[in-house]
Every structure is written in structure tokens, then in C-alpha cells.
Write a structure and sequence with these properties.
Largest sheet: 8 strands, parallel
Number of helices: 9
Strand order of the largest sheet: 1-2-3-4-5-6-7-8
Strand content: 15-25%
Amino acid sequence: MEPLTDIGLNLTHDSFDADRTEVIQRAEAAGVARFIITGTSVTESARALELAQSQPGKFFATAGIHPHHAKQFDQYSSDALRVLLQNPEVVAVGECGLDFFRNFSPQQAQETAFAAHLELAAETGLPVFLHQRGAQERFINILRPVRNRLAGGVAHCFTGGIDELRPLLDLDLYIGITGWLCDERRGDALRAAVPAIPLNRLLVETDAPYLLPRDLAKQPRSRRNEPSFLPHILHRLAAAIDKPVDRVAEATRLNTERLFRLA
């Protein structure tokens, strides 16, 4: 099987502080060769960039402010992100979008920050790393008018069903699949939807340390997700869409390289 890329990994999370090197070593032993480290705030985006610069060609970063933190977005944030986005190791704008499920930031603040991220993406020519939960209609309505000015994007950690999927495909977005697919309690709609995703739109990610696949044969005591579990997600995805694992692995590699412009 081809080496994989985890396109969404929260490697700056403090749960990795004690064994970050070992986590990556385990992932590489499992067949994961490249890692895109998610930026969720100015501080975490700067840390993601620092990690990416420590191992160029293996680590990459995104730079953005998660909708949970949108109330902190201001001109300083925008200026700081613009500087981060100039670095070649930063391959996408985000994580950005809307989360009306938790509303940790006011909805208007989320919409303002989301629109600003889309402008940064249009300005820099970078793709967007998108988050949406409980806000599909507003998310699409904000994204659609600027889509033709964007270099592309991925609906990170897609967990919805076919009705949520269609508008994303209509906007020519890539779809990021996580261990949510492996959840027997909540993953039915996603498992039913994934066969409708064209192979040339599929990406795989762990969102570690979150979303540990529930059907692992051996669950880690810590309940922490790791990038070493990405091949497990790929195998479950291949089974769900009834395609050979090697073919799905190749497709996700090509899609990753195309969207994020990786060599």
C-alpha cells in the first residue's frame, strides 16, 4: 500500500507533549509518511509552523482560527495569520468555518471570522481547511459566493449524510474522512454517504487526538487517537465504498498532492 498522508492532525495538542516523537515513529511504522498539522488559533498555528519547519517534507501546517475561538478574531489575528501564510510549509488557510452545535463563540463572530479567512485564502491562493457543525445552510451561503476565487478546499472531518454531502461536492470540495466512519453509534449516515464521494474527492485524516476509531481491535488505554490509526480508517473507507484498499490509498495520495500542492 502507498504511504499515506494524515491531512488533519492536532499534533500541537498537549496530550502529545510527552511522546510526540514516538507518536510519529509509530505512525511511520504503520505506513503514514506525511502529516499536515492543524492550526486552530494564532498561537497554535505558529506552533504548527514551527513543527513543520523542524521536519520539512514530512510535516506541513495550516494556519487559521477555529470557530470555537472566533470571538478572539481581530485585526491583529488577521495580520498574524497573513504573516504565517507566507511560509512555504503552510499549505492551507484554516481550520476555519462555523460551529453552531457548541456556539463557543457568538454566531455573528463566527461568520465574520469565517468570511475573513476566505478572503485571506483568496488573497494568498491557498486552499481552505473547513470546519462545519450544525451550520450547514449558513456555511454554504457564505462559502458559495467566493468559491470561484478560492484555490480549493476540504470539508475537514465530514460526518454528515448524503444531503449534507451534495452541496459540498457541488462546490467542488474535497471530503475529509475520519474515524467517525468507524463509530457504530453515530456513523450510519456517513457510511451510507461515502459511496457517493468520487474517488478524486476523497481525503483521509485522524483529527488526532480526537475521534479515536471505536472499532479498533485493541483500544489504547489513554483513549487518545494517533496518526498510526490512519490505515485502519483507510481500510474501513475502502470497505464502505467497495474499492480495493490500494486504489483508495493511491487516490487519497493524488488528491492530497493536488489540493495542498505537495511534491
